[in-house]
Write a structure and sequence with these properties.
Blueprint (H helix, E strand, L loop, with lengths): L2 E6 L13 E5 L3 H13 L11 H4 L4 H4 L6 H21 L6 E4 L2 H8 L4 H12 L3 E4 L1 H22 L4 E6 L9 H6 L5 E3 L1 H17 L21 E5 L2 E8 L2 E5 L17 E5 L2 E4 L5 H8 L28 H12 L8 H9 L15 H4 L31 E7 L8 E2 L10 E4 L15 E4 L8 E3 L4
Parallel strand pairs: 1-2, 1-5, 5-6, 10-13, 12-16
Antiparallel strand pairs: 3-4, 7-8, 8-11, 9-10, 12-14, 14-15
Helix pairs in contact: 5-6
Length: 465
Amino acid sequence: MKKTLYIQIDNNSLPEGCGEDVEVLDCRCINDFCSMVGDALVSDLKDENEKPFYRLINPVGQLLMDFKTINKEAFNDVISKWYDYLGELLHKGTLEYDLTLRLPQTYVDWLLQNDNQYYENVGKELQKKRGKISISSEDVIDDVMASLTYKISHTLHERKDDISFVVFSNPIIRNSSYVVKRVKIVDMEFLRYDRWMEQIVIRQLEEEAKRPKSWFFTGMPLSRHSCEEPKSFVVNGVPFEMIRVEGGTFTMGATPEQGSDAYDNEKPPHKVTLSDFYIGQFTVTQELWTAVMGNNPSRFKGANLPVENVCWDDLGHPKYSCQEFIRKLNKLTGKQFRLPTEAEWEYAARGGKLCKGYKYAGSDNLGEVAWYSDNDGRTTHPVGQKKPNELDIYDMSGNVFEWCQDWWGDYSSGNQTNPKGPASGSNRVNRGGSWFFGAGNCRTSCRCNNTPSYRSNDLGFRLAL
């Protein structure tokens, strides 16, 4: 029986329903982390002979590891920061910021009260820094990444005849992640953690359905549609995913949950019926744009940041044009990618047939799903860091506005089927809000528009098919 290899990089436990067909590979690197923390704590300290003594008191991270037996809860709080950082690093391959930790006061007190004079000295220095230490990203990469990716690659190679599926415990790891490309998962299927959990639940549902009616299942109800795997594409070595959106009928515009925030241009609300389509799970990244266009017009640079500063179309500057990108992408793939219509965009943002009536794309709490003016830090952020919506689509509220295919125009009250907007106009629609704007612009029904040649550092786009 072939197995699923569960690569554990945090404390996400195995979901209920896993059997002997799952094998765990522990890649949390706790000892490495504790060792780096210890080295950071004592790197500047010297003994009475002015010689460094870190090797004496920090073998295999002893300074932090010993604390685990004193206060496991506080220790786990520190470790959780490491898991977040490790997940980001495995996702991107590099980080522009260091791992900064504020160690709890209980840890400082423990060091100060320790009989070991060296520990007390460390505690005094740490107290001066108010418990704050920093570990450089270069040190993490040097000490952890090479050995960790080798461990995974070696296991996959050695077990290639026994393993059929590979799952990382952190949902941020997906097809486009650094570690997935680095370890070269071949002849095996890669599944994201959240998708894998859903498949396990479906398997439980199917098994329960075969049992006598006196049995019942109390797990999470899931539609098959919500568990459909994204359609993956690769262009010049860069993968990207498209989500299938099952067609249906919805009310477009100023629906009740939008309340008094709705603008007049969102009215009247009206019924729209759409056929099935695909839409990008993420906005187009700078990595994908560069793979197709060979340039990067974005102000805020980063491979996994959304591409921005791109126009809908500009014949005078085609290298900045979404339409030129799509023309080249279609030539490379043989597909018919396009921008989503405004109706498709809003239907997908609302969650399609799985819509729960949220004000924003995936939640009534905007901070859960969006980067906007209250939390943005005055910049864009890597795609996929916030919670997805009901269809597992990310960042449809906030981060960057998104160009749509339609010309700008007023709504009508009549029912419509697969609307494409006005036949002509002067401005094109953009949707979703951005890092620069407030909550009102991040609502699923909010509409904005600009001239086709307009470019801005908070305006990008998402593909449709």
